[in-house]
C-alpha cells in the first residue's frame, strides 16, 4: 500500500501548505470533513472516488489528471479491481489522453481475462459518446486478448476499429478492410448491414471490382433477408420494435444495386448497368419507411436520374447534354461526380464541352476546394476520391485542345490530390503525363512538380 499512502501524503501535504484543516478544506473542495477523515485516517483508509479525487485536484488548483498515476491503486484498493472506480477512471484517462495510466490499468486487469467484458463496455461507452479515437485503445485490447474467436464482442471490436480507420488514405482503407473482413459475418444484424455497406464502398473506391461485386451482392441478399424478417415481425406483432440500424434499411438495399450499376458503368458495361438502375430508381414500395427512409428513397431516385444521363453520355449520346446540364443546375450535389463522367466521355468520344466546363468552372477551378453545397450528401472522402480523377481527365481534355499550360496545371492538381489520398492509379498516370508534356511546362510548373515529388519522397 506504499503508493496509496504516498497519494494520501500528497493530499495531507497540500492541505497543510494551504494552512487549512479538514473542515476548511472540506468547504473548499465540497467534500464532507468526516469523509476526509475517513480517507486519510481511517483504518483501513476509505477509498477515494474519482469525483472526490477531481474535487481535491480543483481545490489545490492542480491541472486535470493530477496524481492519476498514484490514483491507480485506488482502483485496486483491496488487490482486486473495483469496477465503480476502474470504469470512470479509465474513461477519464481516455478523455485526458493519459494512455500511460490506461496501459497500466489494462495490464493489471488482463491478469484475469474475465475483465475483457468490462474493457469492451468502456470502449462502447466512449465510442457511443462520440469519443472514437479514445475508444480504440480499449477495442485493440479486446482484439488482442479475447480468447473466443467467434465472440460477438471480438467481431464488434474489429468493426469499430475498421469504421474508425476509414478515411482519405486508400492504402489505410485497404489494410483496415482486409483486417475486418473475416469478422463481418459474425456481427449482429444491425452492425453486419453497415459492415457490408462500408466494405462495399471501400472496395468500390479502390476499383477492386470482383471484391466490390462480392460484397454488393452480399449486401443486397442480406438486407433483403433482414427486410423480409422485419416485415413479417411488424405484421405479426402489434408491439413491434424495429431493428435499430445506423441507416434506414432501404439504404442498404438500394446501395447494393447502386454500387453494382456504378461498377458496371466504370468497366464500360453500360447496357448491363442500366438494368441495375431500374432496381433502385423507385424504392417507394419499401414497407415501414419513416421520414429518413423516404429521404433515402428520394436520393436513390435522384441517383438513378443522374446515372441514366451518365450512361447516355458515356455511350456518346451527347444530345442529352443540355438536359443533363439543366439537371445539374437543379441538383448541385451531383455536379462533381457528373462532371467527371461528362469530361471522361468527351475525351473518349473526342467531343468538346467548353460550355459545360465554363458553366461549372467554380467547381473545377484552381481553388483548393470547390464551393460549399447546401445539404451535400457526399462526404469529404467521396469528394477527395473524385477530384484526382476529375483533374486528370481535364488535363487530357486540354491536351486534345492543345492548351498545354492548362493541361499541365490540372495534371499537377491531380498529382497532388492522388498523393494525398494515396491513389496509385491516378498517380501512375500523372507522372508519365507530365514527363510526356514537360516540353510545354513553364518554369513554375517544373518547380511545382519537383516540389511535389520531393515532398512525396521525404514522406514515403
Automatic annotation (TrEMBL):
Which terms does the record give in the GO molecular function aspect? Answer: DNA binding
Q: Which domain of life is it from?
A: Bacteria
The cross-references to Gene3D superfamilies, in alphabetical order and at most eight, read: Tetratricopeptide repeat domain (1.25.40.10)
Keywords on record: DNA-binding
Q: What is this protein called?
A: DNA-binding protein
Q: Which organism is it from?
A: Saccharibacillus alkalitolerans
Amino acid at each position: 500500500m506504499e503508493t496509496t499512502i504516498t497519494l494520501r501524503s500528497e493530499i495531507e501535504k497540500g492541505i497543510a501548505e494551504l494552512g487549512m484543516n479538514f473542515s476548511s478544506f472540506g468547504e473548499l473542495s465540497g467534500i464532507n470533513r468526516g469523509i476526509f477523515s475517513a480517507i486519510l485516517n481511517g483504518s483501513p483508509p476509505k477509498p477515494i472516488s474519482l469525483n472526490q479525487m477531481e474535487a481535491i485536484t480543483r481545490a489545490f488548483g492542480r491541472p486535470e489528471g493530477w496524481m492519476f498515476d498514484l490514483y491507480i491503486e485506488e482502483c485496486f484498493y483491496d488487490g482486486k479491481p473495483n469496477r465503480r472506480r476502474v470504469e470512470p477512471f479509465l474513461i477519464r484517462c481516455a478523455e485526458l489522453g493519459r494512455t500511460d495510466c490506461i496501459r497500466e490499468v489494462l495490464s493489471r486487469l488482463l491478469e484475469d481475462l474475465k475483465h475483457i467484458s468490462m474493457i469492451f463496455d468502456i470502449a462502447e461507452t466512449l465510442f457511443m459518446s462520440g469519443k472514437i479515437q479514445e475508444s480504440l485503445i480499449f477495442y485493440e485490447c479486446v482484439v488482442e486478448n479475447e480468447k473466443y474467436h467467434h465472440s460477438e464482442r471480438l467481431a464488434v471490436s474489429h468493426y469499430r476499429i475498421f469504421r474508425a480507420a476509414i478515411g482519405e488514405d486508400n492504402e489505410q482503407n485497404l489494410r483496415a478492410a482486409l483486417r475486418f473482413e473475416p469478422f463481418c459475418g459474425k456481427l449482429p444484424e444491425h452492425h453486419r448491414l453497415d459492415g457490408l455497406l462500408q466494405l462495399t464502398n471501400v472496395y468500390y473506391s479502390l476499383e477492386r471490382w470482383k471484391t466490390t461485386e462480392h460484397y454488393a451482392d452480399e449486401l443486397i441478399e442480406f438486407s433483403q433477408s433482414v427486410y423480409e424478417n422485419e416485415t413479417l415481425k411488424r405484421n405479426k406483432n402489434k408491439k413491434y420494435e424495429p431493428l435499430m440500424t445506423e441507416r434506414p434499411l432501404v439504404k442498404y438495399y438500394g446501395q447494393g444495386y447502386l454500387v453494382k450499376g456504378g461498377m458496371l458503368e466504370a468497366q464500360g458495361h453500360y447496357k448491363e448497368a442500366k438494368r441495375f438502375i431500374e432496381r433502385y430508381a423507385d424504392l417507394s414500395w419499401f414497407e415501414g419507411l419513416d421520414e429518413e427512409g423516404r429521404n433515402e428513397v428520394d436520393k436513390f431516385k435522384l441517383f438513378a436520374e443522374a446515372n441514366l444521363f451518365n450512361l447516355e453520355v458515356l455511350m456518346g449520346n451527347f444530345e442529352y447534354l443540355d438536359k443533363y446540364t439543366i439537371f445539374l443546375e437543379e441538383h448541385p450535389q451531383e455536379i462533381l461526380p457528373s462532371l467527371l463522367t461528362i469530361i471522361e466521355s468527351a475525351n473518349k468520344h473526342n467531343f468538346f464541352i467548353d460550355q459545360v466546363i465554363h458553366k461549372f468552372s467554380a467547381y473545377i477551378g484552381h481553388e483548393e476546394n470547390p464551393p460549399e453545397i447546401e445539404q451535400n450528401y457526399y462526404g469529404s472522402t467521396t469528394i477527395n476520391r473524385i477530384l484526382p480523377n476529375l483533374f486528370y481527365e481535364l488535363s487530357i481534355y486540354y491536351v486534345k485542345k492543345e492548351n498545354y499550360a492548362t493541361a499541365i496545371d490540372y495534371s499537377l492538381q491531380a498529382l497532388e490530390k492522388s498523393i494525398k489520398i494515396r491513389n496509385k492509379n491516378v498517380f501512375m498516370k500523372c507522372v508519365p503525363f507530365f514527363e510526356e508534356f514537360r516540353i510545354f511546362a513553364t518554369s513554375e510548373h517544373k518547380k511545382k512538380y519537383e516540389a511535389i515529388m520531393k515532398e512525396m519522397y521525404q514522406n514515403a
